[in-house]
Amino acid sequence: MPQEQIIDGVKIISIDICKIMERTWNPSSLTLKRQILFPIAVLFNMPETFDIYHGHIYSSGLIANYLARRSGGVAVNTIHGSYYPIWNKLTNPIAAQCYRIAERILAPALAKFSDIQLHTGDYFAQQVISWGAPKQKIRTIHNGADITRFNPHIPHATVPDHVSIDPSLPVILTARRLVRKNGIDYLIRAMRSVCREEKCQLVIIGEGEERDSLERLAHELHVQDHVHFLGMIPHDKLPPYLALADIAVVPSLVEASSIFMLEAMAMAKPIIATNAGGLPEILPPSAGIFVEPMDEIGLADAILELLRNKEKRLQLGKQAYHHVQDNYSWKAVAQQMESEYMRLLTEKKAQAEQLPDIPFV
């Protein structure tokens, strides 16, 4: 039976069948198995009729289109970025080619079928248009940050006793899923050069399949005393840990509009990010430093530059804070989303009113 709960005043109905959604849940990644099984859980629960069916990624985008057509509702599909540019770096050549072909087929097809396709990174929106998707059906709405929960006035977290963070040393911090595409290995390699010249420490928040190999890498490079893995921290408890940071780093190989980066900006942290995917779309040069993906030397140089220049750190953090306040609060993002919903509903109603009456014979 569907499970109902109220979160922040919104009714959430969670559906499952034979616990397949529960069994395929993975907090660090959206597995292919879960995407394949999700339509089964939806169809066997036969959800009630809604005005808008908003599917995220591919399988839920397909099911949203099916349900919208069945009930006469609006079909919305969101694509949260893509690994298309780097699939060959994440898996074997055959699998990489299969994933790339699947994206080239599914992304533009879903754009054609849906009333609108939303993207959280314009880099992939433009890619999908180049594959033949109707330009008028593509919109980019970047992610946002909770600027009330994440702000420069949050006090530092009390670090657990088993984590030996030195409060007297600068903290470089990243909060990422520990998977290959997020480039944490390049950040750890950069720390080898940084620690030779400056005393500092890297704090890594998150879990994922790469954790064991990343911890081994830190030992192999003899930086294990300067790299602290804190594991998964619940999102509502993250702000005090982010408050520890002197510098926030997003070393991804590809990324849409990183929520972690926006939250760090909302807390007035200077940003070092890779010039990858949608990151340059939300981080102006006045609020951070860009390096190329997989460039451990560039990462090290950028970190050293900010460690040695407190005034620049403060200036970048100030610019980052104002940029998020002005453009990327969740309220602003919600208003963009609501505007698209209302436009689509108005168009759907107008189309229905234009249909001619068919007399009964």
From TrEMBL:
Keywords: Glycosyltransferase, Transferase
MF terms (GO), sorted A to Z: glycosyltransferase activity
Coiled-coil region list: none
Keyword presence, Glycosyltransferase: yes
Domain of life: Archaea
CDD domains: GT4_PimA-like
InterPro entries cross-referenced by the UniProt entry: Glyco_trans_1, Glyco_trans_4-like_N
Domain Glycosyl transferase family per the UniProt entry, residue ranges: 166-322
UniProt domain Glycosyltransferase subfamily 4-like N-terminal: residue ranges: 31-149
Protein name: Glycosyltransferase
Organism field: Methanomethylovorans hollandica (strain DSM 15978 / NBRC 107637 / DMS1)
